Amino acid sequence: MITEAEQAKKDLARIKSAIKREQRHACMVVAECEQTRLKAKAEAKTEELKSSTLVACLSKNSATRTATSVLNGMNSLLGGNKVNRLEKENAQLHREVEDLNGQIERLHTDMQKLKNNHARELNRTNEQHQQEVSNLKRILDKAYQWFPSFKRFLNMERECLQYGFNEEQTDKLLHGQTVNYSGLLHSNEYRRNVRADNVTAQVIRDEKRNLFLQINKTPIAPWFRMQFGIGQEQHRGLKI
User: Fold this and answer.
1) What is the pLDDT of residues 20-75, one digit of tens each?
2) I need a labelling partner for 46 at 20 to 30 A (CA). Which of 36, 60, 104, 111 fits?
3) Residue 219 phi, psi dihedral angles, 5° rounding
């Protein structure tokens, strides 16, 4: 599932890059088209001024008027061909711009489809995760009912890890083995650490099958009080 989500993100990035590239190309095409149109207009205007000047110089006699008519006809023909060619080019450029806009729209549509697919995939993954969590919780609840000591072992495992024992040491303690320990032990009750040098730790059961951790054969709570120099009266005061 994670691989598909990552691939979808890569596809989205690729589509966005393609859209930007096509937009830049479309802008360049439109700019070139406008520049060509302005250039043709300027050329046509120049030809028109030349023709007007020539006509003014030759307008004194009919021969001149005839030559002017011929010249105007030639200019009109030449200018018309150029304008027609430019109009065709302009129309072609407009078609290309429309095609590019269509491609951009299709890219946007594809990108939206990828987003929707990605969202659906995430929703499906979340639903599966929630279902798995629900199933595990149901199984755990049944395990608590079928095996009452199972919950006690889980709680003792958490306590041993909080005191400072590693996973391997905790596993031995939960199997009833004695563990020789040197290092820091943490008391959640007093929120303090104490140095333990070569002590023995062991988890024992009472008659009701409750689990207790002992340090040097002393329950760990009184052992912490001794290490911190806290007497019974002081302990009551702290509790109050």
Assistant:
1) 666 676 667 556 666 766 666 666 666 555 555 544 544 445 555 555 565 555 55
2) 60
3) -50, 145
For residues 147 and 140, what is the distance between their CA atoms, to the nearest angstrom? 10
**234 in Cβ contact with 177 (< 8 Å):** no
Going across the sheet that includes 192-205, the strands are 179-187, 192-205, 211-215, 218-219
Cα(89)–Cα(153) distance, rounded to whole angstroms?
Answer: 84
- Gap between the Cα atoms of 226 and 232, Å rounded: 10
Instruction: Enumerate long-range contacts of 119-127, CB under 8 Å, 24 or more apart.
Output: 121/1, 121/4, 121/5, 121/8, 122/5, 125/1
Backbone angles phi, psi at 11, to 5 degrees: -65, -40
The Cα–Cα gap between 130 and 160 comes to 30
Strand partners, 213: 203
Burial of residue 25, with CB atoms counted within 10 A of its CB: 0-12 exposed, 13-18 middle, 19 or more buried: middle
Residues in a beta bridge with 204: 212
For residue 217, give the 3-state DSSP assignment: coil
pTM of the model: 0.44
